[in-house]
Design goal:
Number of domains: 1
Number of helices: 4
Order of helices and strands: HHEHEH
Radius of gyration: 18 Å
């Protein structure tokens, strides 16, 4: 507070951005990300918070710019649309991805 008014602490804001915002951490961690067996994420086109849509689109572009292999998909619906039904995204997309990329034991 300065003169009874809230003010931005620039130094703390920079720390927060560098340690919390994923896109700010990509360059520093790109080599570790390249060693991963698989990276995938998706987002709902009709998420009630449009920032989620825009930030996921920007995030996948940033991964592409850094040459980091990944799968990214925008699906029609909201975050709760048929994800848990028999043919929903959990069974049709998530479990097969895990089956392909997860390794257990000393492999």
């Amino acid at each position: 507070m300065e003169n009874g008014q809230p003010t931005v602490n620039v130094e703390n804001t920079k720390k927060w951005q560098s340690r919390f915002l994923l896109d700010q951490m990509l360059a520093a961690n790109s080599e570790n990300l390249r060693r991963m067996r698989g990276i995938a994420f998706d987002w709902a086109r009709y998420d009630p918070n449009p920032d989620h849509v825009y930030s996921n689109q920007a995030f996948t572009r940033k991964l592409d710019e850094l040459g980091i292999e990944h799968e990214a998909e925008e699906y029609r619906g909201d975050p709760w649309s048929e994800n848990w039904t028999k043919n929903g995204r959990f069974y049709a997309r998530l479990l097969p991805f895990f089956d392909q990329h997860l390794v257990f034991g000393d492999n």
